[in-house]
Amino acid sequence: MPPATGSIWLKPHGGKYDEARIDSAKVQVLHLYVPSLAFARLMNDYNLPPLTGRSVRYSCGVKDEVINQVGLSVLSEMMRPTAAGRMLVETSSLLLAARLAHLHCEMGLVRSPVMSRDRLDDARLRRVLGYVEEHLAEEITVADLAAVACLSVFHFTRAFTATAGLPPYRYVSQKRLESAKAMIAAGRASLGKIALDSRFSSQSSFTRAFRRATGMTPAEYRRAGR
């Protein structure tokens, strides 16, 4: 009997287990590997002991909507790249590590997380937004922004989302799109260069993302003189 949609297999780091065998050609599987670094970034916030990734319970057929939604977000990014894909993956690994540590570790291993402010104060928010504006054409990571805010990556991600109403990777993606629209309207750079400056891996992925956001291709947008 094939596994149901949304079924999750959890395998801790370093364990040796029998590989799942799927005979049906119709079954599709997404493999998400959560690196040890993601757990290490949560050690202070969640009071985690060392090697938390190895203490995740080995389970088959788990139903967890948070893990499911994170997986779908990563899959969507793989199929339809955005301007902040690496930030999305970085955030996803952190969310997965937090979920695994909180609900899927051995009983009694993990204590309640250390709580922090729900929102960024004005000074921290201004520093973060200023950093984004100055580095739009460069690689930006959530860890970079957290360092600017002087917070852990976990607390920064939650605080920024509560303050701005959207997660850091989505904010950066939107700002890069706004910048790309301005560059297209100015007409001084080729669409290929604008795609690279907007941190897309190719002009084709830039075109697809631009069309999803605006309803027209970059070339159509330039011709429309907007």
Strand-helix topology:
Blueprint: E1 8-10, H1 36-40, H2 43-46, E2 59-62, H3 65-79, H4 85-103, H5 122-134, H6 142-149, H7 153-164, H8 168-186, H9 191-197, H10 203-214, H11 218-223
Antiparallel strand pairs: 1-2
Helix pairs in contact: 3-4, 4-8, 5-6, 6-7, 9-10
Report the count of strand segments: 2
Largest sheet: 2 strands, antiparallel
- Uncertain runs are none
Spatial separation of the terminal alpha carbons = 55 Å
Beta content comes to under 5%
What is the H/E string? EHHEHHHHHHHHH
Describe this structure in words.
The chain has a two-stranded antiparallel sheet. By secondary structure, it is mainly α. The chain has helices at 36-40, 43-46, 65-79, 85-103, 122-134, 142-149, 153-164, 168-186, 191-197, 203-214, 218-223, and strands spanning 8-10, 59-62. The protein is flat. The chain contains 11 helices and 2 strands. Helix 4 (85-103) runs antiparallel to helix 8, helix 5 packs across helix 6 (142-149) and helix 9 packs across helix 10. It has 2 domains: 1-114, no CATH class; 176-223, Arc Repressor Mutant, subunit A (Orthogonal Bundle), CATH 1.10.10. The model has no long low-confidence stretch (mean pLDDT 84).
